[in-house]
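To whoever picks this up:

The parser on our side crashed when reading a file containing two proteins. I've narrowed it down to the boundary between the first structure block and the second sequence. Both blocks are reproduced below exactly, byte for byte. First block:
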Amino acid sequence: MSRRWFSSSVLALALIAAMAAAVVDLARQAPLNVLIVTMESTRASDFTAENLPKTFAAAETGLRFTSHRTISAWTAPNIIALLGGVSPYAQGVHARDQALPADSRLPLEDLAKAGWRVAGLQSFMAVGVFDHLGVGFEPGKNLLPWLAALARAQRPFVLWHHYLETHLPYAPPESHRPVLDGLIARTDAAARARIEAVMTQPVIPASSVAFKPSDRAAIRALYLGNLRAFDDWFGNLWSFLERAGLLENTVVVLTADHGEELLERGHVGHASTTRAGHLYEEIVRVPLVLWAPKRLGIAVGVVERETHHPDIAATVMRLLGKTPSRPIDGRDLFAEGERAWDGMSSRAGYAEPDPARVTQFVYARKEGRWKLHIDMAGDAVTRRALYDLDADSGERTDVSAREVARAQRMEAAILAKRAIMRPPSMAQTHAAIPVERPIWIFPRQGAVLGYDDFGGRIRLEWRGVPDGAYVIAYEAGTGAQALSGELSVTGAVKDFGKIERAYWNRFIVPYRNFRVRVGVAGRPDLWSEWLELEAQAAP
């Protein structure tokens, strides 16, 4: 062996080692991805290894927070809190058709400007309540192919994905559907009708169905069936993340928008479905699991310290090494020490009868073991109750008469926050104002529309100005299911993107009858005719 050959070999090996070290160094310095998965209507108490075995198997490699709370009784404020780090008092989003200010400048906007692709792929995200979050919505794209494409391109991303199928109606697939004969009597037609409502209706307003305590076993079994279907879905997602190598450079967050009542107070659902919203523990206690790439050196295990939804945004920014341009109302999930929790919600959430004039709110504050609820109509407190959660985790015994000073001090803290909270404001657009009445192009008047008539992509189109400011007014359903509102639109098309057949059947078809018209923003004299439409079930 010549000395020259030996020297060349040593040099080559040294170069290879240096290159390998550089690659490892580069990987360590490369921007992280973030995948945030939110489950719809999922209670912390039911987030167990028995109900979600695949999810819990994955959770063993992450960090599970067992005392995590959301901040509202319906979806939008909670998503704004966890993605934007904005407290419920600072949002001004308390019903449909409301939105954050256009100049909010939330953390996700900072990340987008720094090079991350910040996205949401689902059609329902196109509604106004999610405007100005900093998420670039890409409706109609499929989750796994989207992730695979970005993994191949090595482009950092922040993706929010919301799993909707745990929402009412509780209609799990056959593989997870309970046998109801053992839970309700075959001959009890009234009980079967009540359970049928739970299995078919996306909203069940308070008092529209006279539930009985004996219904709870069947309702809970159906609800858990939906959770087990999620577990299958998440198991597939987790396997994909492992195969694609995304877990090596992706922070994964799994939580829920809010919990769900299963007859604890006589209702099924949450604010937007019951229209009798509250902030009891079955609504605000939600699961939270965080997985971090090994390079971050974060230990796995269980964290019992109390955490809140705005903390998620603070933690994501810290893990990505970015300082938000505006203060975040939360703090790092890993910060030591306890602090008070505050929640607030309109009574009917998305389904408020008049979004421009929301008058009834529920508030809650937790300090250690004590939790105070107050309800307000206008400026009047209509109800107050204090609970000792250590002795009364179900919040059944009001101890405010015994703990007068404590209740008064906690109520004063709530009212002080309320006094400076941002008032609700309707979503607005600043596009050009057309001068002609819109004329419908699609759909046609009086259509009975099936899923295939839309080609699986929900789209409204009218003759108008491409950059014009328009408003879509809609009325859906009848009776207890009735819902109406307005959407601000720029341009002559409102495209909600591709939706799945299951979504169409679960969340569109139950409303059956729809009326839609489009008008010029700020011009009450320039409305199209009403379109009378009927949604038909997809095979």
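<<boundary where parser fails>>
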Amino acid sequence: MSDVFLNNKFVGTVKKPEEFVDRIVSERRMGKLPITANVMFNQKTDEVRVEISGGRAVKPLIVVSDGKPLLTNKHLDQLEKNEITWTDLVKQGVIDYLDALEEENALIAFKEEELTPDHTHLEVSPLDIVGLTTALVPFGNFNHGVRLSQGSKNQKQAIGFYVANYFNRMDMDVNLLHYPQYPISSTLIHETLEYEKHPSGQNVVVAVMSYQGYNMEDAIVINKGSVDRGMGRSTYYRPVISEELRYSGGLIDEVSIPDKDVKGFRSENDYRLLEDDGIIYPEAAVKEGDVIIGKSSPPRFLSSLDEYNLTSSSRRESSMALKHGEKGIVDFVTITENSEGNKLIQVRLRDQRIPEIGDKFTSRHGQKGVISIIVPEEDIPFTASGTRPDIIFSPHGIPSRMTMAHMIELLASKTGALAGRRINATLFDSEKEVDLRKELLSLGFMENGTETMYNGITGERYKAKIYVGSMYYLKLKHMVANKVHSRARGPIQLLTRQPTEGRANEGGLRLGEMEKDTFVAHGTSLLLKERFDADKTIVPVCEDCGVIAVYDGRKEQSFCPICGENTEVSNIEISYAFKLILDELKALTVYPKLGLEGKY
């Protein structure tokens, strides 16, 4: 007797488990049971497990009987003529949906040629074993598995033509590529998804070589001529939104240019771009500190006495202004109402982003890198035919990462560009490298993809042949303009008196333990002292009992809370964070005694 479990709950026993399993499967294929019901007989534990719970990943497979798939050519003809649909195939029992449980008892063939009488199922397409974005990687079956998934993730971060009605939308933090292109080496999924309607990259000429050490460690060297002609240009859009809120007591925010008597009034210069209604005009060039929407709010706390006050309580300034390090051009202004009937102002800012040092680019194979130098076009190495590469890619990125598809794509796209056609680079079903090499040879180029190149500065011929080809490159949303961050002095936290954290609130760059060690190793003690005084403070300390004394501002003298006034008090410089820990220790009834060394 074999135990039967339904959704991991014991429901009974059966005498002939194999027959029981076969019956469930056949009834499922006849449509008497749900298509997502899965069953498995585990011989080792002598258990039959049936799963019908929701949330399982199921995969469609073609049923195989006696080494032949149930999907016939007749079915395929009917599908092409739209006489039957996928659902009909499922109803006829041609397609099975298997989950991880039932897959344990199945033997699945990858291709039809591999079928044997032992096989139970056949993949609908070998492409099925990867996800959507992974299937967009050309020649992906030549890559290492890790690089394949990294290439998939990189494509999700690429800047492209994300939506056709972007001009009428108020999207948060979006990028738009100016001259997007369709890849020369494309896969079946590119066609299926209609990728040409939302592309996210550009076909560029890539040379695999080093350039004066500038493309060490995943950096890429980029041609200034290509940038000037529009390669990798994009626009960054960001909205600024404000609304007239209503408060209790009939008070309301007012969108207008604030009066001078408003609490927190900025300078006249900050409001210079506002029109009479307190809202900025389109196409205004703005930078940090400029007010975009002028607004004043009623005072925060109204006491009962203020209501009878003769002088009207002053309003406070609550305008929307650009934060530290932001700039752009006002692209679009809309004035509307929100669901509560309050006035809503939305201003969209745009900022043109031209590739600069530090911007991140990637191929579709997880070969990401940042621009290390933008070289003038005349200094870029050139081929015998006069072609100058747009990007110089480091050869060290290939051997350890084993991204063969990166190399094949260069060769394939080169062939496609010269022959004026698209290359089929679908996973497991791509054009053969041998055929591409023959075609490249017939087009008058070396079949191995290499070319003779000349030094752009000296004109000398390189002794080595350089691997050059065309490739689909993507610009990623990680741009240095969104990350660059520095400060001298600025806001500090109330508790520790140390600089605030983060780029958005003008925070400091933290010098931690490890950074300290590098300074120690360099022997730069004065620099180290200077770096660690972000929260330096001067405190009076009693020389007798060693506790922090109190400074009396009216008497202009310090006294010790324990020893009184008849004691020697010295002012010493310590970190405010150290003063805090002394206070914490006092709260724990621990007596932190500061022993002062003698004066000089």
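After patching the parser it read the second block fine. The chain has five domains: 2-124, 136-233+357-475, 237-353, 485-531, 536-587. The chain has 13 helices and 34 strands.
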